[in-house]
Each structure stands twice: as C-alpha cells, then as structure tokens.
Amino acid sequence: MNSLRRRLILLLVASIVGVVGLATAAVISVRGGAPPPELTMPWVAQQVEIVMRLRPSQIPDVFPVELSDHPAGGTVDRAETAMLNDILHRRGLDVSAVVSEKAEEPGQLASVRLPDNRWAIMKVPHVKPPGREWLVLAGWISLIVAGATAVSVYFTSVLIRPLEMLEAAVSKIGSDGVLATVPEVGSAEVKATAHALNQLSSRLKTAMESRMRLVAAAGHDLRTPMTRMRLRAEFLDDDREKWLHDLDELDRIADSAIRLVREEVDQDAVEPVELDRLVHDIEAEMISLGHAVSVGHLDKVSVRAGALGLRRALRNLIVNAATHGKGCGISLSAADNRATLTIADRGPGIPPEQLGKAFEPFFRVDPGRRQSIPGAGLGLAIAKEIIERHGGTITLENRPGGGLAQRVVFDAVS
C-alpha cells in the first residue's frame, strides 16, 4: 500500500511540475532576451529625431544621450543597423547610424553622427533578466514542488482509501476466517467498498458455521450406526477382528472431526505459557506412552497462548514425529524476541511436492491411503489451527540428513 501511495504521489508531482515547467520554458522562449528589433528600432529612431532637432544643450535629461568624438565600440549588428538607418531615412533624416553590442554587459548602443561630426550615443531598450535569476527560478520551482506535493498527498489519500480499508479488513481476519465489520461511512466509493466487505464477511460466517455444523453433526450421527455395527460384529465368527478394526478407524475419524470443529469454536483464555516447562511435561507423557522422544537444549522462554490448546497442538506434532518419524528430538531457542521450537524426526520425510498439503485434513503421504499407523490424518490440521490462532507459525521441511523438521515460531513474552 505504501508503495502504491508513493508511486501515485510521485506520478502526480512529476505531472504537475512537468506541465508547469514546460509552460515556464515556453514563456521564457517567447519573452526571453531582448525585445525584437521591430519594436525597439522605431523607438530609437524617434529618439534620434528629437536629438537631431535640438541643440546638444537643449537635450532633456530624460534622454540618456552621450556625446562622443567616435561611435560606441563593440561588435556592429549589421541587420539592426540597416533597419535603423532605413527607418531614419523614411522619417526624412539624412544621418548615419550604427547599432553595436555592448562590450562588457548585455545590451546594445545606437550611435548617430551629428552635423558637427560628433556622435550621439544612446541605449537601445533592453529587458534585463532579474538579478540572481537562478535563485528566483529555484524558488519558483520549489514553490511548485511544495504545492504539487501537498495536493498529490491529499488526493492520493482519497484515491487509495478503499484499498487501505480492504487491507485493514483482510489483516483482521480471525482464525474462523471471518472479516471484521467495516464502518460504512465516507464517500460513495468507500461506502460501497465497506458494504461489499461486510456482505462478504456475512457470507463467510454463514458458510463457516454451516461447515462446522455439518462436520459436527456427521461425527455425532456416525456414532449410533457404528455402535450398532460393533454389536453385530461381536456375533460374527469370520473376519470379526477386521470388522472391529475398521470400526475403530471410523470412530477415530469421527472423533478427530469433532475435535477439529471444537478447536475452531471453543477457544481457551490466552495467558503467558512457559514453553520450556510445557515441552518437558509433554516429553514425560510421551515417554510414559512408549514413544521415542528426547529433549535437547531448551531456552527458558514464555509465549502468549491458550495453555490447553497449545499443549494439544504440540502433543499432536510430537506424536506425529514419534510415530511416523521413528522417534524425534526437541529443541527450543529464543532470539530477537522470538521463540522457535524445532521437532526433528528420523523418518523418511515428506516428498517436496507434498509438503504444502501436509496440513490439509485427512492428508496421508501414501497416495493409496494405506494406514499402517492408527490415526485419522487430522493431527497436523488441528495443530496448525491452534498455533496460528495464537499468532504463531508452523513450517515443515525435509532435513538434509533424512527425516522431517517441524518448526513452530511464536513471539516471546518479555
């Protein structure tokens, strides 16, 4: 968003400054320098005519005329000299005039030979640029840039307000996938965006609730027919154990589905949890159940989470590593206000193309979904739901030496 804001501001500022700069350059090119000779030479000719009709002592002070024994020095401008002489001749004055450039400063001088062989030297009108012209131009451009920036910032804020609202709404999506309610105030576009977001949030909430009710109802409703089937299987002589095994698997799937829904609905209170002590407690529990679990270095660190939910999530991850990974090692490090829990096993890992699917419900690495280890395939999905709800992240990666590494990262509590 900030990048888009900066781009729009730069675009508007560059456009405004560019247009004003082009207009300024056009004005300077049209009006820059001295006035054209078509305007100045008639005025000089009129001044020469007045001087010629008066005696030198009668020349008024308003005419800056200098009398000299020779014409003004400098390079002679032949075109303007010819123009001035032509105008003088048309006025009936039989005199000789010379227009020359000043030697030490911009401008021109007109020299007219008087009857007494002296020369009357007078200035040709010249519009000088203002003093410190570069400073004036820099101030002019600075004012344009300041004004253009202020205008651009304001209109850019108005333009991207709906996008900011969308970004804020998406960033506030809860663990249930529902958007927070957005106030429907402001301009017509902002109101339309807020209304569309609120409608989307309502539909998402309805869909999520419908899904949870469906899963919970299916899990509960499966219990009754499974109980009847289990009773009937007791009276079978052939394949009795296979029937009971399949029913146990169905029972685990139904129970896991109900637990997944409960994790999305029932959320325990958030509080500081000593992560290192929790890992030690889970290790003792796993060892008592016969799992090959070992604990390495554990930094003392606390995180904010629901104690029961976090325990359930880490237990699922450790059980997954201990059963599918033929044992696992656990380490905990704290650095830069982050707590990183690593669960590394010694199993075959997960094919790289399937790592992104590992958190999907009922995921199994075996495409044939053969079940050599009991489980419904919801352990990682439940763990991910709990960890992300409390602001943590979980990633999976194959270890170079073999096995899978599960990394859980939380913000540490100081």
Protein traits:
single chain; 414 residues; alpha+beta; Helix Hairpins; 4 domains; 7-stranded mixed sheet; 4-stranded antiparallel sheet; 9 helices; 17% strand; transmembrane; phosphorelay sensor kinase activity
List strands and helices in order, with pairings.
Elements: H1 2-31, H2 37-53, E1 65-68, H3 78-90, E2 97-101, E3 108-113, E4 119-124, H4 133-171, H5 188-233, H6 240-265, E5 270-274, H7 275-288, E6 293-298, E7 302-306, H8 307-324, E8 328-335, E9 338-345, H9 379-389, E10 393-398, E11 404-413
Parallel strand pairs: 6-8
Antiparallel strand pairs: 1-4, 2-3, 3-4, 5-7, 7-11, 8-9, 9-11, 10-11
Helix pairs in contact: 1-4, 2-3, 4-5, 5-6, 6-9, 7-8, 8-9
What does this structure look like?
The protein is of the alpha+beta class. Helix content is 52%, strand content 17%. The protein has nine helices and eleven strands. α2 (37-53) packs across α3, α5 packs antiparallel against α6 and α8 packs antiparallel against α9. The protein folds into four domains: 1-33 and 130-170; 37-123, no CATH class; 173-265, Helix Hairpins (Orthogonal Bundle); 268-413, Heat Shock Protein 90, CATH 3.30.565.10. It is rod-shaped and about 150 Å long. β2 and β3 (108-113) form a beta hairpin.
The CATH class of the largest domain is identified as: Alpha Beta
- Tell me the distance between the termini: 31 Å
- Helix/sheet category: alpha+beta
Largest sheet: 7 strands, mixed
Count every beta strand, where a strand is a DSSP E run of 2 or more residues: 11
Shape: rod-shaped
Helix-strand sequence: HHEHEEEHHHEHEEHEEHEE
Question: What fraction strand?
Answer: 15-25%
Low-confidence stretches: 367-373
Q: What is the percent of helical residues? A: 40-55%
CATH-level-4 superfamily name of the largest domain: Histidine kinase-like ATPase, C-terminal domain
With helices defined by DSSP (H or I, 4 residues minimum), what is the helix count? 9
- What is the second-level CATH architecture of the largest domain? 2-Layer Sandwich
The pLDDT mean sits at 77
Number of domains in the coordinates?
Answer: 4
Radius of gyration: 46 Å
CATH fold topology of the largest domain = Heat Shock Protein 90
